[in-house]
Write a structure and sequence with these properties.
With 424 residues, this protein is an alpha/beta fold. It has one domain. The chain is 53% helix and 10% strand. It has helices at 6-11, 16-35, 45-52, 57-67, 82-87, 103-107, 116-126, 131-135, 146-155, 172-193, 199-222, 232-242, 247-267, 292-298, 313-316, 327-338, 350-362, 377-392, 409-422, and strands spanning 72-75, 91-94, 138-142, 161-164, 277-283, 302-308, 367-373, 397-402. A four-stranded parallel beta sheet has the order 2-1-3-4, with helices on both faces. Strands 6-5-7-8 form a four-stranded parallel beta sheet, with helices on both faces. The chain starts with 5 loop residues before the first helix and ends with a helix.
Length: 424
């Protein structure tokens, strides 16, 4: 299927030979992890199709939109407010960064002790094997960690780069400063697109993104059922693709899936045997195609029922109030919503441990697996207080550090199987 897009990739200046190597391994990996599952919801056919042509379908749409004069903004983080870009008739896309394939190219310019997510992102750009990096008219970075801050300097050498400065605390003055960052970003977006952001357009954009959040939340709500109508890795895939897809189509497809899941719950359909242990995964994000941990958990006698991650609840929880008003009032409302994201970049960050405990109770979990991508010192350090808080609540927890390689897969499986067994 991929062959139809060779001309497009060539025009984007991609390294076709290397890209072929990447495309050769993805179908097998996807087949092993996803297509091996039994009784999957039929609505997953949409996401299966997207993955089958992950570097074809959506990139081709973006290029067509550019021909019509639209601008594409490549983003790395859930803190970048999509509403602002959509209000200026721009398009937001995620960027590649979830595979070991890209790490060696990233290590040519970054220290080996940088987290794999950053190394993979930089490698995907410099190795010319991710079309989204080639297409984006502008990259939008943020200051959530030191590794990213320095990586932006490398990525911004040949593509316009706008960096949003995230406050390190959440006092009133910090939230006011974040509102100013959003207003500044809006000006940059207007200049880049040539389109003015009006209160009316921003109100419409807020509704579009809220509708997407609500649709994703419906899918997550279905995982609270005693009989699980969907696997954790299928929901992870849906969330990973949401970063790249058109927001209105994303909402439509998530609602379609939610309809099917609600119907399955009524009929008592489960994709796991009765008594399967319910796991909440918390910690660092899992960019596509990082399915490693979910796959190990769900083939070790447990089910992932929720993710307290940026590729999980942090992405869609909390809406921006749809009250309209002036641009200034709307920017303040957007700032408030995004400052409710409890990323480990903040200090203090006690609200994140409260989130994990709340979600553990809401999703009736038997245990929490707190995962840290190697060399992410923020989440690694916070693991201590997370484990302490969970133990005080009597919630079993397993802390794990991993990267994108398969070198630790068997060791992880042994630890996870022992943890699941311990849950009784």
């Amino acid at each position: 299927m991929m062959a139809n897009y060779r001309e497009m990739w060539e025009a984007l200046g991609m390294d076709l030979e290397n890209h072929d190597n990447l495309c050769a391994v993805l179908p097998d990996a996807f087949g092993d992890v996803y297509l091996s599952q039994e009784n999957r919801p039929e609505s997953m056919d949409f996401w299966d199709m997207v993955v089958a042509d992950i570097h074809g379908i959506r990139p081709a749409e973006l290029i067509e939109a550019q021909k019509d004069g639209k601008k594409v903004f490549g983003t790395f983080c859930v803190f970048v407010p999509d509403e602002v870009v959509i209000a200026a008739d721009g398009i937001v896309t995620g960027l590649c960064g979830g595979s070991q394939f890209w790490v060696p190219d990233g290590e040519k310019v970054l220290p080996k002790s940088t987290c794999p997510l950053i190394k993979a992102s930089v490698g995907a750009r410099l190795g010319k094997t991710c079309p989204f990096f080639r297409i984006a008219d502008m990259y939008v970075g943020e200051t959530t960690c030191d590794g990213k801050k320095k990586a932006w300097e490398i990525l911004g050498q040949d593509v316009p780069m706008h960096i949003m400065d995230i406050p390190q605390m959440k006092r009133e003055k910090d939230i006011a400063r974040w509102k100013e960052e959003i207003a500044d970003f809006a000006k940059v977006v207007e200049e880049t697109t040539g389109n003015e952001i009006t209160p009316e357009k921003l109100a419409d954009a807020i509704k579009i993104i809220n509708a997407k959040r609500r649709a994703m939340k419906r899918v997550y709500e279905a995982r609270k059922a005693d009989k699980l109508p969907i696997s954790g890795k299928d929901v992870l895939l849906m969330t990973q693709i949401a970063f790249f897809d058109d927001p209105q189509r994303c909402a439509q497809m998530c609602n379609r899936l939610a309809d099917e899941l609600e119907d399955r719950i009524e009929k008592g359909v489960s994709v796991f045997p009765e008594g399967t242990k319910r796991i909440l995964v918390s910690g660092t994000p899992m960019a596509i195609p990082n399915w490693k941990l979910h796959h190990i958990i769900e083939t070790s006698g447990a089910a992932v029922v929720c993710e307290e991650t940026c590729t999980g609840t942090r992405y869609f929880e909390n809406e921006v109030p749809e009250t309209g008003g002036s641009l200034d009032e709307q920017f303040a409302a957007i700032a408030d919503r995004y400052m409710k994201i409890n990323c480990a970049c903040f200090t203090p960050n006690t609200d994140r441990t409260k989130d994990i405990i709340r979600l553990a109770k809401e999703y009736k979990v038997d245990g929490v697996i707190d995962v840290n991508l190697k060399f992410c010192c923020l989440y690694d350090t916070e693991g201590y207080s997370v484990e302490q808080a969970l133990k005080e609540e009597g919630i079993p927890v397993l802390g794990i550090e991993t990267d994108y390689t398969d070198a630790d897969a068997e060791q992880l499986r042994t630890r996870i199987e022992a943890f699941v067994e311990m849950l009784g």
